[in-house]
Amino acid sequence: MRPIHPARAVSAHPIRTRIAATALLLAPLAACSAGTSGGGGADDGKPGGGKDRPATVTVTPSGAKAPAGKPVTVDVRGGTLVKAVVTDAEGRSLGGERSGDTAWKSARKAAPGTTYTVRTTTRTPDGTERTDESSFTTAPADRVNKVDWRPGAATTVGVAQPLSLVFDHPVTDKAEVERQLKVTVPDGTEGSWGWIKDYSGRDRVDWRPKEYWKPGTEVRLDARLNGTDSGDGGWFVRDYSTHFTVGSRQIVKVDLDAKRLTLERHGETVRSIPVSGGTPGGKKRSWGGTTVLMAKEGTINMNSETVGLGDAYDKMVDYSMRLTWSGMYAHAAPWNAQHMGRANRSSGCIGMDTPDASWFYGQVRPGDPFEITGGDTKGVPDPGNGFGAWNLSWEEWQAKSALR
């Protein structure tokens, strides 16, 4: 028998030693990767698996030219959403609220041409919280729509004053725009928006109460239009707001047949003065129905050519109070003094002696209604020719809302 060589007998032990050493080195590596790999973790049934993995946060929209006009959403996987805040470069928040434990949606829409920062705080199953920050920028607007509004902020107005917004460009998605308009009245006054054409031809929306405002009412408008697409007219890129107080219940009653103007305050006659209205039988007749004092313009130039009456007059007129966009005023008319209280001989306005006009001008305020009656008028002005919504029944006005 051949004897066993000593070297061969010893050579097997180093191999076993290397294998054992390799196994020891691999063991801790496998334990580390179980908590961070996509296939293991809390779902593999092993104690503690995956608890140190951060939650995955998805923000929509994203990117450098993200679409505007939609809310921002946040979705979380592998954890709980504790908080989400979306702000623009000026620190204004879009607001929003959670849906369950893993989702959030902004209350406002993303506006065009704006960079937003999204900050989220998440919590993993083991209780670890983490805050992440990301950003996105929306594509710029191809066209911007702007708004003119009445009345101005912090003013006191008459009981017939509507809220009125006139748009630079057409509004084809009227319902979506109307949804963003919030009127706050503490006493729960019933009212409605109505879409009309302004005298300028532009789209306009007015809010009027069912009946004249109650004196002392505080009214606020929040037009949360930033990020709203008006349709063909383009995007709104800012919000608008105004607030005003309703003053005394003043009603101006003009009887063209009697040639008298009477100011009533809280149901009591303050004063009645003689006037001369528009000349009967033609283009110089006055408007009837209810008009609203739009503005007190003081001394202005009145030119008959601007209202389609040729070269009948061109003069400076004192105590001018505008009633329609088409050029009907109440004002001082000393050149017509012989007709005050006797005959209607104006070119359509309500004229009075200068002392009466001075007194009256100091009594009234924008928003006061002029209720004009008489047997020979031009009818009632269109709702967009001044503030003529009061010439429609409540049902007719409600039907002009885009949300009816």
Account of the 3D structure:
β16 and β17 form a beta hairpin. The strands form 6 sheets. The chain has a 5-stranded mixed sheet with strand order 18-17-16-24-19, with no helix packed on it. The protein has a 4-stranded antiparallel sheet with strand order 1-2-5-4, with no helix packed on it. It folds into 3 domains: 82 residues, Immunoglobulin-like; 101 residues, Sandwich (Immunoglobulin-like), CATH 2.60.40.3710; 131 residues, L,D-transpeptidase catalytic domain-like. 12% of the residues lie in helices and 36% in strands. It is built from 4 helices and 24 strands. The protein has 404 residues and is mainly beta. The chain is elongated, with a radius of gyration of 37 Å.
Q: What number of domains?
A: 3
**Helix-strand topology string:** HEEEEEEEEEEHEEEEEEEEEEEEEHEH
Q: Radius of gyration, Cα only, in angstroms?
A: 37 Å
Coarse shape: elongated
Measured as a percent range, the helix fraction is 10-25%
Biggest sheet character: 5 strands, mixed
Instruction: Look at the structure and name the CATH superfamily of the largest domain.
Output: L,D-transpeptidase catalytic domain-like
Question: Secondary-structure map with pairings?
Answer:
Blueprint: H1 6-33, E1 56-60, E2 71-77, E3 80-87, E4 97-99, E5 103-109, E6 115-123, E7 129-137, E8 147-150, E9 155-157, E10 163-167, H2 174-179, E11 181-184, E12 191-197, E13 203-209, E14 218-223, E15 240-246, E16 250-255, E17 260-265, E18 268-274, E19 289-292, E20 295-303, E21 314-322, E22 329-332, E23 350-352, H3 354-363, E24 369-373, H4 394-398
Parallel strand pairs: 9-15, 16-24, 22-23
Antiparallel strand pairs: 1-2, 2-5, 3-6, 4-5, 6-7, 8-10, 10-13, 11-14, 12-13, 14-15, 16-17, 17-18, 19-24, 20-21, 21-22
